[in-house]
Amino acid sequence: MNSLQNIENDIIKLTTYIRNKYPELYTFLDETPITISFSNNQSINKTMLKDYLESLEILLKRYSETHKNK
Question: What superkingdom does the record give (predicted)?
């Protein structure tokens, strides 16, 4: 099982990749559920970060599939 630090590192790597490769998609990342959690002063736990990482992976996959020729 991944440690919290590993998950955080994976999120950073993936968001950096999105920012560099798909800057138009990166602008929408501030509207994700993890932002809402921070704004509600909820504690961020490992499960939430794993879910967020998974949502980023899905978002990137879907976006890259639908924008192959652009």
Answer: Bacteria
